[in-house]
Design brief:
Blueprint lengths: L10 H16 L7 E4 L10 E5 L6 H11 L8 H10 L1
Helix pairs in contact: 1-2
């Protein structure tokens, strides 16, 4: 996620911007949670955390706040994160 796109923007910044511009209109009347990974430690393939549960009181606001706090550290443990999402 620290990688850059062709326009020089960081991948995580592009993802954050895309989410911010769509989250309020796209999650209305849906059950959504937010799990993030690779944000706490540099070399941990189990760095996955459910930061906004399905039962969030103000889902769009809570997701945007959580995404704005995240700073990627480098690892992207997608396999582990997807498996954790199945049991959450």
């Amino acid at each position: 996620m620290w990688g850059e796109l062709d326009n020089g923007q960081r991948k995580y910044e592009a993802a954050r911007n895309a989410l911010a511009s769509n989250v309020e209109t796209q999650i209305e009347n849906r059950e959504v949670a937010l799990r993030v990974y690779g944000h706490r430690t540099i070399s941990d393939c189990r760095d996955s955390e459910l930061v906004v549960p399905f039962a969030s009181s103000d889902l769009a606001k809570d997701i945007l706040a959580a995404v704005n706090r995240i700073r990627p550290k480098g690892q992207t443990p997608i396999d582990y994160s997807l498996r954790q999402a199945l049991i959450a």
